[in-house]
Specification:
By secondary structure, this protein is an alpha+beta fold. The chain has a domain at 25-99. The chain is built from 3 helices and 8 strands. The structure holds calcium ion (2 copies). One calcium ion (CA) binds at residues 2-3, 111, 113-114, 120, 122.
């Protein structure tokens, strides 16, 4: 197994899809998304983009949208649709440049070591040395996943030194 490290610029967040439209609608609210994805959405997003899971824009999908803003997030209510249920949407947020490197912006993935020796060593000090200027001075979060199946480190069942 290989581990990759993802440290902290890209000004759109990942896409999020936390709800299905089967109940009262498709509720992709900022509050819930933040609760479920700590550290992944900047404090004051400047824009929101929503697409159906199949990649259609809101306009192309033709649903009546209740909310789509950077305060509440995105809500498509079943009760607002004349004849059908909502499509299933995913959303992402853009963050103002000051938040790049300070909120939600991530580096590229790094994979500097293979686990064939004493283990898989993805030390920040080595990554900095080998990738000068690419990693911000004070990373806020780290993510690690396997290189083959993108499995989060926490789901591998392995024990980590640090
Ligand atoms: Ca590795
Ligand atoms: Ca959804």
């Amino acid at each position: 197994m290989f581990l990759l490290i993802y440290l902290g610029p890209e000004c759109w967040t990942d896409w999020f899809d936390r709800d299905d439209p089967s109940g009262t609608g498709d509720w992709e609210t900022l509050y819930s998304l933040r609760m479920e994805n700590p550290g992944k959405i900047c404090p004051n997003p400047v824009d929101i983009e929503a697409k159906t899971l199949s990649g259609l824009s809101v306009a192309a999908a033709g649903d009546v949208i209740y909310k789509s803003d950077t305060t509440v997030g995105f809500v498509c209510r079943k009760s607002d649709q004349p004849t059908k249920t909502c499509n299933d949407y995913r959303v992402r947020f853009s963050c103002h440049p000051p938040f790049c490197g300070g909120g939600v912006c991530w580096t590229k993935w790094y994979d500097r070591d293979n686990p064939s020796g004493t283990g898989d060593w993805e030390l920040l000090s080595d990554l900095r040395k080998e990738n000068p200027g690419q990693i911000c001075e004070h990373p806020l979060y780290i993510e690690a996943q396997t290189t083959d199946t993108s499995t989060p480190a926490s789901s591998t069942g392995q024990t980590f030194l640090t």
